[in-house]
Amino acid sequence: MKFLTSSRFSAFVPFLLAAVVLFVLAPGILSDFRLNLLARYLCFAIVAVGIGLAWGSGGMLTLGQGVFFGLGAYAMGLHMKLDDAGPGRAPDYMPPTTDWLPGWIEMFRSGPITIAAIVLLPAAVALVLGLATFKRKVRGAYFAILSQALAAAFALLIIVLGSQSGNYTNGTNGLSNFRSFFGYDLNDPVNQRMLFYLAAGFLLVMVFIARQLRNSRYGELLRACQSSEERVRFLGYDPANVKVVAYVIAAAMAGIGGALFVPIVGIITPMDVGVAPSIAMLIGVAIGGRGTLWGPVIGAVGVAWAQSTLSEQFPAFWTYVQGALFIVVIAFLPGGLASLGSVIRNARGWWDDKRGRPAEPPVAVTDDLKTDVGSRV
User: Fold this and answer.
1) Among 145, 150, 151, 153, which Cα is nearest to 60's?
2) Backbone region of residue 188 per phi and psi (left: phi > 0; alpha: psi in -120 to 50; beta: other values)
3) Do residues 206 and 49 make contact, with C-beta atoms less than 8 angstroms apart?
């Protein structure tokens, strides 16, 4: 019973609840179509965990996570297209006369290299960008604009690589019509459920990693960088290095989310990796609560679900609804929905003060109290 009431056990209760929901309730209640949609939302939730670490703990407003999401997605997409084509053959979207592929395409024929690239490519880009910006003390709105410009440039690069004679990325059409995922037939509903379990498992692992980082000495330094970089520097640490580590981890998580997104959804295009998707990922984190562990997950899943639902009914109004949600949260719930309880408590306290609560009766001065006070004097 002591273990059940310990703080260590209570910290893992949300993990147990999430595991029950994802591995028991959702597969038992949802149809295959809805389960596939939920798997898609979980991919965005994986990205949101990284954003919550970088933005919520480190104060880095990352508006370019679509870049890292896209790197992981296109790495997986190229591998799947090359695997479908067979050894020595070009993917079906390339010109039929293609008899040679550049080395940076050919390397994705290998499964182990692809898995490594899904993590290392986004991490390497984030490392270079992080060192180039944080070492020069670029932060705040300037860093946000820079990361957003990077997302726009990456989407344009994907289009340009698809418009050349080799048509390496299939341009605006993107990569689609995948038949298999590491040898598993994607048309088999059993394998589609396997992808859902894979996404759910990776999400729980990413949340656990974020929890360990937040509760470690490094997490304290990262939060200190958000409040006062000078204090961190005074303690003998370089704030730029502390922030770069979080940025690289967030990028790697985004790459994993993008890689899972491709076999689950069946398509990846430049529209999925540009500025708009990057902002949508950030909005989910802001709505859920960027400073919490599970808030980004709930916010990302909720926003993705709302987008799918409202886009079916009101396709022209979702952008306005998304913007309105972001404004309302920033204005009235800066801590996201996770802070709703404290906001309500503060509002009740303010209302009670305004109504004028009756003053507490004065403490009666007894002979014993007088004697006690006199003895202390």
Assistant:
1) 145
2) beta
3) yes
CB neighbourhood size of 334 (10 A): 13
Query: Which CA distances in Å does 6 have to 9, 11, 12?
Result: 5, 9, 10
Domain with 48 in it: what CATH number? Answer: 1.10.3470
Residue 245 covered by a domain:
yes
Q: Is residue 293 part of a domain?
A: yes
Strands (E), the chain: 175-176, 180-181, 184-185, 267-268
What is d(CA 245, CA 132) in angstroms, rounded to the nearest whole number?
A: 13
Tens digits of residue pLDDT in 25-72: 999 999 999 999 999 999 999 999 999 999 989 989 999 999 999 999
DSSP string, 203-232: HHHHHHHHHHHHTSHHHHHHHHHHH-HHHH
Question: What is the rounded CA–CA span in Å between residue 186 and residue 20?
Answer: 26
- Give per-residue pLDDT as tens, 157-212: 998 888 776 688 888 899 999 999 998 999 999 999 999 999 999 999 999 999 99
Model confidence, pTM: 0.87
Instruction: Look at residue 122 and tell me if it is in a domain.
Output: yes
The letter for the amino acid at 91 is P
